[in-house]
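Sanity check

After download, print the first record. It should look like this:
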Amino acid sequence: MGPSVEVGAVVAERTVHLTRESLVRYAGASGDFNPIHYRDDVAERVGLPGVLAHGMLTMGLSVETVVDWLGDSGRILEYGVRFTRPVVVDAEAGADVTVTAKVGAIDEEVVRLDLTVTSADTTVLGKAQVRVRAAS
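Expected C-alpha coordinates:
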Protein backbone atom coordinates (compact mmCIF):
# COMPACT_ATOMS: atom_id res chain seq x y z
CA MET A 1 0.00 0.00 0.00
CA GLY A 2 1.71 3.13 -1.22
CA PRO A 3 1.38 6.73 -0.05
CA SER A 4 -0.89 7.56 -3.02
CA VAL A 5 -3.81 5.56 -1.62
CA GLU A 6 -6.78 7.81 -0.96
CA VAL A 7 -10.36 7.44 0.18
CA GLY A 8 -12.53 6.21 -2.69
CA ALA A 9 -9.69 4.45 -4.54
CA VAL A 10 -10.49 0.97 -5.86
CA VAL A 11 -7.64 -1.23 -4.65
CA ALA A 12 -8.82 -4.68 -5.77
CA GLU A 13 -11.59 -6.33 -7.74
CA ARG A 14 -12.35 -9.75 -9.12
CA THR A 15 -15.12 -12.10 -10.10
CA VAL A 16 -15.18 -15.66 -8.78
CA HIS A 17 -17.22 -18.32 -10.57
CA LEU A 18 -18.85 -20.84 -8.23
CA THR A 19 -20.17 -24.21 -9.34
CA ARG A 20 -21.94 -26.97 -7.49
CA GLU A 21 -18.55 -28.70 -7.35
CA SER A 22 -17.17 -25.60 -5.56
CA LEU A 23 -19.90 -26.02 -2.94
CA VAL A 24 -19.17 -29.72 -2.44
CA ARG A 25 -15.45 -29.00 -2.06
CA TYR A 26 -16.18 -26.25 0.47
CA ALA A 27 -18.56 -28.54 2.36
CA GLY A 28 -15.76 -31.10 2.66
CA ALA A 29 -13.25 -28.50 3.84
CA SER A 30 -15.61 -26.81 6.30
CA GLY A 31 -17.63 -29.77 7.49
CA ASP A 32 -20.88 -27.93 6.64
CA PHE A 33 -22.90 -30.58 4.81
CA ASN A 34 -26.29 -28.88 5.10
CA PRO A 35 -28.16 -30.19 2.03
CA ILE A 36 -29.37 -26.68 1.06
CA HIS A 37 -25.84 -26.30 -0.33
CA TYR A 38 -26.10 -29.18 -2.81
CA ARG A 39 -29.67 -30.55 -3.15
CA ASP A 40 -32.32 -28.69 -5.13
CA ASP A 41 -35.17 -30.71 -3.62
CA VAL A 42 -34.19 -29.82 -0.05
CA ALA A 43 -33.63 -26.14 -0.90
CA GLU A 44 -37.05 -26.00 -2.57
CA ARG A 45 -38.76 -27.81 0.32
CA VAL A 46 -37.53 -25.19 2.82
CA GLY A 47 -38.61 -22.31 0.57
CA LEU A 48 -35.25 -21.24 -0.85
CA PRO A 49 -34.85 -19.97 -4.44
CA GLY A 50 -32.34 -22.76 -5.14
CA VAL A 51 -29.12 -24.29 -3.85
CA LEU A 52 -27.16 -21.65 -1.95
CA ALA A 53 -23.44 -21.03 -1.58
CA HIS A 54 -22.26 -21.25 2.01
CA GLY A 55 -22.27 -17.81 3.60
CA MET A 56 -18.78 -18.34 4.98
CA LEU A 57 -17.54 -19.32 1.49
CA THR A 58 -18.87 -16.04 0.11
CA MET A 59 -17.38 -14.13 3.03
CA GLY A 60 -14.00 -15.83 2.65
CA LEU A 61 -13.64 -15.39 -1.09
CA SER A 62 -14.61 -11.74 -0.66
CA VAL A 63 -11.88 -10.86 1.85
CA GLU A 64 -9.33 -12.90 -0.12
CA THR A 65 -9.75 -10.33 -2.91
CA VAL A 66 -7.66 -7.78 -0.96
CA VAL A 67 -4.81 -10.08 0.10
CA ASP A 68 -2.64 -9.50 -3.00
CA TRP A 69 -3.00 -5.75 -2.56
CA LEU A 70 -2.10 -6.04 1.13
CA GLY A 71 0.88 -8.27 0.46
CA ASP A 72 0.38 -9.91 3.86
CA SER A 73 -2.93 -11.26 5.17
CA GLY A 74 -1.51 -10.76 8.68
CA ARG A 75 -2.27 -7.05 8.27
CA ILE A 76 -6.01 -7.77 8.51
CA LEU A 77 -7.19 -6.61 11.93
CA GLU A 78 -10.94 -7.07 11.67
CA TYR A 79 -13.46 -8.22 9.09
CA GLY A 80 -17.23 -8.17 9.29
CA VAL A 81 -20.23 -8.47 7.00
CA ARG A 82 -24.00 -8.72 7.07
CA PHE A 83 -25.47 -11.54 5.01
CA THR A 84 -28.11 -9.67 3.02
CA ARG A 85 -29.01 -12.00 0.13
CA PRO A 86 -28.06 -15.59 -0.72
CA VAL A 87 -25.85 -16.58 -3.65
CA VAL A 88 -27.95 -19.04 -5.66
CA VAL A 89 -25.72 -21.51 -7.51
CA ASP A 90 -27.47 -22.93 -10.57
CA ALA A 91 -26.76 -26.60 -11.33
CA GLU A 92 -25.68 -25.81 -14.90
CA ALA A 93 -24.67 -22.14 -15.02
CA GLY A 94 -23.19 -21.82 -11.52
CA ALA A 95 -22.95 -18.29 -10.13
CA ASP A 96 -20.53 -15.38 -10.35
CA VAL A 97 -19.61 -13.40 -7.25
CA THR A 98 -18.06 -10.00 -7.96
CA VAL A 99 -16.05 -8.18 -5.32
CA THR A 100 -14.81 -4.58 -5.45
CA ALA A 101 -12.66 -3.20 -2.63
CA LYS A 102 -12.47 0.57 -2.10
CA VAL A 103 -10.67 2.59 0.52
CA GLY A 104 -13.38 3.83 2.89
CA ALA A 105 -11.30 5.61 5.51
CA ILE A 106 -7.66 6.16 6.41
CA ASP A 107 -5.98 7.07 9.65
CA GLU A 108 -2.35 6.79 10.70
CA GLU A 109 -2.58 3.17 11.81
CA VAL A 110 -5.66 1.65 10.16
CA VAL A 111 -7.18 1.65 6.69
CA ARG A 112 -10.83 0.63 6.28
CA LEU A 113 -11.64 -1.15 3.05
CA ASP A 114 -15.27 -1.29 1.98
CA LEU A 115 -16.21 -4.33 -0.08
CA THR A 116 -19.07 -4.36 -2.56
CA VAL A 117 -20.07 -7.99 -3.08
CA THR A 118 -22.68 -8.88 -5.70
CA SER A 119 -24.11 -11.87 -7.49
CA ALA A 120 -26.74 -11.72 -10.23
CA ASP A 121 -26.77 -7.90 -9.92
CA THR A 122 -27.75 -8.15 -6.24
CA THR A 123 -25.70 -7.14 -3.21
CA VAL A 124 -25.15 -10.32 -1.23
CA LEU A 125 -22.99 -8.98 1.63
CA GLY A 126 -23.84 -5.72 3.33
CA LYS A 127 -21.57 -3.57 5.48
CA ALA A 128 -18.63 -5.67 4.32
CA GLN A 129 -15.65 -3.92 5.85
CA VAL A 130 -12.05 -4.94 6.38
CA ARG A 131 -9.87 -3.01 8.80
CA VAL A 132 -6.18 -3.41 7.97
CA ARG A 133 -2.99 -2.23 9.58
CA ALA A 134 -1.55 0.61 7.50
CA ALA A 135 1.78 -0.09 5.82
CA SER A 136 4.75 1.27 7.71
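If your output differs, re-run the checksum step. Summary of this record's structure: Residues 20-30 form the longest helix (11 residues).
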